[in-house]
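Readers of this paper often ask what the protein records in our data store actually look like. This encoding replaces a full spatial description with a residue-level series of whole-number codes. For reference, a complete record is included directly beneath this paragraph.
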Amino acid sequence: MSNFLWACATVGYTDKRLFSAFAPVIGSKLDECNKQGLATIAWSYAVANVPRQDLFNQVFIGALAAYENVFSTEDLFQLHQWQLWQQEIGSGMELPQSLGGKCRNAFTSASYSESKLQNDVVDELKAAGLDLDEKVLLGSGYRVDALVKVDDGKSVAIEVDGPFHFIQRRPMGSTTLKHRQVGKLDRIEVVSVPYWEWNELKNSLTKQNYLHEKLGCDRDH
């Protein structure tokens, strides 16, 4: 079940009726789940944004705590996003302090790779005279490609979304989750620059006009 829900969440298929139907079944079989299965279930429901108290309760927390010392880095990464989701929905559910700390450390220590596409977008943001910081670590633990100050003084996060962020131009679950959680928890608007839109822009002028339009700021900024 965990692999099936993970596959659905990964490709962005998050039908609430489907996830709701599985919740009580999973809740009754938690003792049969291994560490990866538990982390996968947590992450999948965070992506789907389907709160279920019959699944995510103190029994679930206890099951996670039992594996605290053997979770992989990927497991910890997913559990941090689940904990962020609990903050999103105001459930009051929290991982044990030591496990929560390990999850956040794994999440914020994740390697950050730059792409040619990302560098091109950042170069054009700078050429457009926009005030920005690169590779910014936010309070949630997410890192965004660029944080740009726009006309009204607020900051907007630019996320350069390449081919691996989509399936046939539909956002992957991880992309949707990041944008949603940054918006809700860091209270920062996320502006996505999809690779296919960027690739259609043929010169610096059209790229800078595109960025100004995306950010909703004046061209003479």
The beta strands are 131-137, 143-149, 155-161, 166-167, 170-171, 189-194.
